[in-house]
Amino acid sequence: MFRDVAFGQYYPANSVVHRLDPRVKLILTLLYVIGIFFVKSYFGFMLTAALLILIILVARLPMASVLKSVRGILLIVLFTAVINLFMIKEGDVLVQWKIFTITKNGVHTTIKIVLRLVLLISGASLLPLTTTPVELADGLESLMKPLALLKVPVRDIAMIMSIALRFIPTLFEETNKIISAQKARGASLDTGNIFARIKALLPVLIPLFVNSFRRADELAFAMDARCYNASDKRTKLKKARIRFADILAAVIVCAFFTVILLDRYYFGSVGINIDAMIFGGLL
Asked: How far apart are CA 233 and CA 238, in angstroms?
Protein backbone atom coordinates (compact mmCIF):
# COMPACT_ATOMS: atom_id res chain seq x y z
CA MET A 1 0.00 0.00 0.00
CA PHE A 2 2.77 2.43 0.93
CA ARG A 3 5.68 0.88 -0.93
CA ASP A 4 5.79 3.56 -3.63
CA VAL A 5 5.94 6.59 -1.35
CA ALA A 6 9.12 8.48 -2.13
CA PHE A 7 8.69 11.58 0.01
CA GLY A 8 11.27 11.82 2.77
CA GLN A 9 13.50 9.10 1.28
CA TYR A 10 17.08 10.15 0.60
CA TYR A 11 18.92 8.62 -2.36
CA PRO A 12 22.69 8.62 -1.65
CA ALA A 13 24.92 9.60 -4.56
CA ASN A 14 28.08 11.61 -5.12
CA SER A 15 26.75 14.32 -7.44
CA VAL A 16 26.95 18.09 -7.75
CA VAL A 17 23.27 18.40 -6.82
CA HIS A 18 23.76 16.40 -3.61
CA ARG A 19 26.68 18.66 -2.63
CA LEU A 20 24.78 21.92 -3.13
CA ASP A 21 24.14 24.10 -0.11
CA PRO A 22 20.79 23.03 1.44
CA ARG A 23 19.74 26.68 1.80
CA VAL A 24 20.24 27.21 -1.92
CA LYS A 25 18.30 24.03 -2.72
CA LEU A 26 15.40 25.10 -0.49
CA ILE A 27 15.16 28.54 -2.13
CA LEU A 28 15.54 27.18 -5.67
CA THR A 29 12.91 24.49 -5.04
CA LEU A 30 10.51 27.19 -3.84
CA LEU A 31 11.31 29.26 -6.93
CA TYR A 32 10.71 26.22 -9.16
CA VAL A 33 7.34 25.52 -7.51
CA ILE A 34 6.27 29.16 -7.93
CA GLY A 35 7.44 29.11 -11.56
CA ILE A 36 5.28 26.05 -12.32
CA PHE A 37 2.14 28.07 -11.54
CA PHE A 38 3.17 30.80 -14.00
CA VAL A 39 3.57 28.37 -16.92
CA LYS A 40 0.74 28.75 -19.42
CA SER A 41 2.13 27.43 -22.73
CA TYR A 42 3.41 24.10 -23.98
CA PHE A 43 6.78 25.79 -24.54
CA GLY A 44 6.88 26.58 -20.80
CA PHE A 45 6.08 22.97 -19.90
CA MET A 46 8.76 21.73 -22.31
CA LEU A 47 11.28 24.08 -20.70
CA THR A 48 10.27 22.91 -17.21
CA ALA A 49 10.54 19.24 -18.20
CA ALA A 50 13.98 19.88 -19.77
CA LEU A 51 15.19 21.54 -16.56
CA LEU A 52 13.81 18.68 -14.48
CA ILE A 53 15.46 16.00 -16.65
CA LEU A 54 18.76 17.91 -16.55
CA ILE A 55 18.69 17.99 -12.73
CA ILE A 56 17.83 14.28 -12.54
CA LEU A 57 20.72 13.39 -14.86
CA VAL A 58 23.23 15.60 -13.03
CA ALA A 59 22.05 14.23 -9.66
CA ARG A 60 22.42 10.64 -10.97
CA LEU A 61 18.98 9.72 -9.73
CA PRO A 62 17.12 6.72 -11.15
CA MET A 63 13.97 7.86 -12.94
CA ALA A 64 11.96 5.23 -11.02
CA SER A 65 12.73 6.96 -7.70
CA VAL A 66 11.39 10.26 -9.04
CA LEU A 67 8.29 8.73 -10.63
CA LYS A 68 7.38 6.99 -7.35
CA SER A 69 6.32 10.38 -6.01
CA VAL A 70 3.87 10.77 -8.91
CA ARG A 71 2.20 7.41 -8.18
CA GLY A 72 0.98 8.79 -4.88
CA ILE A 73 -1.11 11.48 -6.60
CA LEU A 74 -2.11 9.42 -9.65
CA LEU A 75 -5.73 9.17 -8.50
CA ILE A 76 -5.92 12.94 -7.96
CA VAL A 77 -4.39 13.58 -11.40
CA LEU A 78 -6.89 11.26 -13.12
CA PHE A 79 -9.86 12.73 -11.24
CA THR A 80 -8.79 16.30 -12.08
CA ALA A 81 -8.22 15.39 -15.72
CA VAL A 82 -11.66 13.78 -16.12
CA ILE A 83 -13.44 16.70 -14.43
CA ASN A 84 -11.75 19.31 -16.64
CA LEU A 85 -12.13 17.25 -19.80
CA PHE A 86 -15.91 17.02 -19.52
CA MET A 87 -16.73 20.24 -17.65
CA ILE A 88 -15.07 22.77 -19.98
CA LYS A 89 -17.55 23.56 -22.76
CA GLU A 90 -15.77 26.48 -24.48
CA GLY A 91 -14.06 26.03 -27.84
CA ASP A 92 -14.55 23.80 -30.85
CA VAL A 93 -16.44 20.58 -30.13
CA LEU A 94 -14.34 17.48 -30.83
CA VAL A 95 -16.57 14.71 -29.43
CA GLN A 96 -20.20 14.80 -28.34
CA TRP A 97 -22.11 11.82 -26.96
CA LYS A 98 -25.34 12.25 -25.02
CA ILE A 99 -24.52 14.56 -22.08
CA PHE A 100 -20.74 14.29 -22.57
CA THR A 101 -18.94 16.93 -24.62
CA ILE A 102 -15.22 17.20 -25.24
CA THR A 103 -13.95 20.50 -26.63
CA LYS A 104 -10.59 21.62 -27.93
CA ASN A 105 -10.10 24.02 -25.00
CA GLY A 106 -11.03 21.23 -22.58
CA VAL A 107 -8.38 18.92 -24.02
CA HIS A 108 -5.65 21.58 -23.86
CA THR A 109 -6.61 22.60 -20.32
CA THR A 110 -6.62 18.96 -19.17
CA ILE A 111 -3.20 18.28 -20.67
CA LYS A 112 -1.73 21.39 -19.05
CA ILE A 113 -3.19 20.58 -15.62
CA VAL A 114 -1.82 17.02 -15.75
CA LEU A 115 1.62 18.30 -16.83
CA ARG A 116 1.58 20.94 -14.09
CA LEU A 117 0.77 18.42 -11.35
CA VAL A 118 3.30 15.82 -12.55
CA LEU A 119 6.12 18.36 -12.95
CA LEU A 120 5.27 20.00 -9.63
CA ILE A 121 5.39 16.80 -7.58
CA SER A 122 8.41 15.39 -9.46
CA GLY A 123 10.40 18.60 -9.01
CA ALA A 124 9.52 18.96 -5.33
CA SER A 125 10.54 15.32 -4.68
CA LEU A 126 14.11 16.07 -5.80
CA LEU A 127 14.74 18.05 -2.61
CA PRO A 128 14.35 15.14 -0.13
CA LEU A 129 15.93 12.73 -2.64
CA THR A 130 19.16 14.77 -2.80
CA THR A 131 19.25 16.26 0.72
CA THR A 132 19.49 14.42 4.02
CA PRO A 133 17.03 15.30 6.81
CA VAL A 134 19.90 16.76 8.84
CA GLU A 135 20.94 19.03 5.97
CA LEU A 136 17.33 20.10 5.46
CA ALA A 137 17.00 20.96 9.14
CA ASP A 138 20.26 22.94 9.09
CA GLY A 139 19.18 24.80 5.96
CA LEU A 140 15.75 25.65 7.42
CA GLU A 141 17.34 26.76 10.66
CA SER A 142 19.74 29.05 8.81
CA LEU A 143 16.98 30.57 6.65
CA MET A 144 14.73 31.13 9.68
CA LYS A 145 17.43 32.82 11.78
CA PRO A 146 15.86 36.29 11.42
CA LEU A 147 12.77 34.93 13.20
CA ALA A 148 14.92 34.37 16.30
CA LEU A 149 14.82 38.14 16.83
CA LEU A 150 11.07 37.75 17.39
CA LYS A 151 11.71 35.05 20.04
CA VAL A 152 10.64 32.25 17.69
CA PRO A 153 12.30 28.94 18.77
CA VAL A 154 14.02 28.39 15.41
CA ARG A 155 16.28 25.55 16.57
CA ASP A 156 13.38 23.64 18.12
CA ILE A 157 11.31 23.99 14.93
CA ALA A 158 14.24 22.83 12.78
CA MET A 159 14.81 19.80 15.01
CA ILE A 160 11.09 18.86 14.95
CA MET A 161 11.05 19.05 11.14
CA SER A 162 14.25 17.02 10.92
CA ILE A 163 12.81 14.26 13.12
CA ALA A 164 9.53 14.29 11.17
CA LEU A 165 11.32 13.92 7.83
CA ARG A 166 13.54 11.18 9.24
CA PHE A 167 10.62 9.10 10.49
CA ILE A 168 8.29 9.41 7.49
CA PRO A 169 9.93 6.42 5.66
CA THR A 170 10.13 4.52 8.96
CA LEU A 171 6.39 4.93 9.60
CA PHE A 172 5.54 3.79 6.08
CA GLU A 173 7.76 0.74 6.51
CA GLU A 174 6.13 0.00 9.88
CA THR A 175 2.68 0.34 8.29
CA ASN A 176 3.58 -2.17 5.56
CA LYS A 177 4.81 -4.66 8.16
CA ILE A 178 1.60 -4.36 10.20
CA ILE A 179 -0.58 -4.73 7.08
CA SER A 180 1.36 -7.84 6.03
CA ALA A 181 1.03 -9.29 9.53
CA GLN A 182 -2.73 -8.65 9.60
CA LYS A 183 -3.19 -10.21 6.15
CA ALA A 184 -1.21 -13.26 7.28
CA ARG A 185 -3.75 -13.64 10.09
CA GLY A 186 -6.61 -13.60 7.57
CA ALA A 187 -7.60 -9.93 7.77
CA SER A 188 -9.30 -8.56 4.65
CA LEU A 189 -8.28 -4.93 4.07
CA ASP A 190 -9.07 -4.53 0.36
CA THR A 191 -12.60 -5.90 0.10
CA GLY A 192 -16.06 -4.63 1.07
CA ASN A 193 -17.57 -1.16 0.98
CA ILE A 194 -15.87 2.01 2.20
CA PHE A 195 -17.15 1.61 5.79
CA ALA A 196 -15.94 -2.00 5.96
CA ARG A 197 -12.48 -0.97 4.76
CA ILE A 198 -12.29 1.85 7.32
CA LYS A 199 -13.29 -0.58 10.07
CA ALA A 200 -10.68 -3.08 8.83
CA LEU A 201 -7.95 -0.42 9.19
CA LEU A 202 -8.42 -0.18 12.96
CA PRO A 203 -6.18 -3.23 13.64
CA VAL A 204 -3.51 -1.40 11.58
CA LEU A 205 -3.85 2.07 13.09
CA ILE A 206 -3.83 1.01 16.75
CA PRO A 207 -0.44 -0.84 16.70
CA LEU A 208 0.93 1.92 14.42
CA PHE A 209 0.11 4.59 17.00
CA VAL A 210 1.48 2.43 19.82
CA ASN A 211 4.75 1.87 17.94
CA SER A 212 4.99 5.58 17.07
CA PHE A 213 4.65 6.63 20.71
CA ARG A 214 7.18 3.97 21.71
CA ARG A 215 9.68 5.26 19.15
CA ALA A 216 9.10 8.84 20.31
CA ASP A 217 9.76 7.77 23.90
CA GLU A 218 12.97 5.97 22.94
CA LEU A 219 14.15 8.97 20.92
CA ALA A 220 13.44 11.35 23.81
CA PHE A 221 15.42 9.14 26.23
CA ALA A 222 18.29 8.84 23.72
CA MET A 223 18.48 12.63 23.22
CA ASP A 224 18.30 13.20 26.98
CA ALA A 225 21.06 10.62 27.61
CA ARG A 226 23.29 12.51 25.18
CA CYS A 227 22.55 15.82 26.94
CA TYR A 228 20.96 17.32 23.84
CA ASN A 229 19.51 20.81 24.07
CA ALA A 230 18.62 23.39 21.45
CA SER A 231 20.54 26.28 22.99
CA ASP A 232 22.25 28.96 20.92
CA LYS A 233 25.68 27.69 22.01
CA ARG A 234 25.49 24.53 19.92
CA THR A 235 28.18 24.06 17.27
CA LYS A 236 28.06 22.29 13.90
CA LEU A 237 30.36 19.62 12.54
CA LYS A 238 29.88 20.87 8.96
CA LYS A 239 29.35 24.53 8.16
CA ALA A 240 27.49 25.30 4.95
CA ARG A 241 29.26 27.59 2.50
CA ILE A 242 28.12 29.05 -0.80
CA ARG A 243 30.30 27.72 -3.63
CA PHE A 244 30.51 28.25 -7.38
CA ALA A 245 28.16 25.33 -8.06
CA ASP A 246 25.52 26.97 -5.85
CA ILE A 247 25.82 30.25 -7.76
CA LEU A 248 25.62 28.42 -11.10
CA ALA A 249 22.50 26.50 -9.99
CA ALA A 250 20.90 29.75 -8.84
CA VAL A 251 21.65 31.40 -12.19
CA ILE A 252 20.12 28.47 -14.14
CA VAL A 253 16.91 28.38 -12.07
CA CYS A 254 16.59 32.19 -12.10
CA ALA A 255 17.02 32.15 -15.89
CA PHE A 256 14.29 29.51 -16.11
CA PHE A 257 11.99 31.63 -13.93
CA THR A 258 12.71 34.73 -16.03
CA VAL A 259 11.88 32.96 -19.31
CA ILE A 260 8.63 31.63 -17.80
CA LEU A 261 7.61 35.14 -16.75
CA LEU A 262 8.52 36.55 -20.18
CA ASP A 263 6.50 33.82 -21.87
CA ARG A 264 3.47 34.59 -19.71
CA TYR A 265 3.50 38.40 -19.67
CA TYR A 266 5.70 39.67 -22.53
CA PHE A 267 5.88 37.38 -25.58
CA GLY A 268 2.12 37.40 -26.13
CA SER A 269 1.88 41.19 -25.83
CA VAL A 270 4.37 41.68 -28.67
CA GLY A 271 2.75 39.07 -30.90
CA ILE A 272 5.24 36.23 -30.32
CA ASN A 273 3.51 32.84 -30.09
CA ILE A 274 6.23 30.29 -29.38
CA ASP A 275 3.74 27.39 -29.29
CA ALA A 276 2.64 28.22 -32.85
CA MET A 277 6.27 28.51 -33.94
CA ILE A 278 7.13 25.07 -32.50
CA PHE A 279 3.97 23.06 -33.12
CA GLY A 280 2.57 24.91 -36.15
CA GLY A 281 -1.03 23.94 -36.84
CA LEU A 282 -1.13 21.04 -34.38
CA LEU A 283 -2.66 23.23 -31.65
From this structure: 15
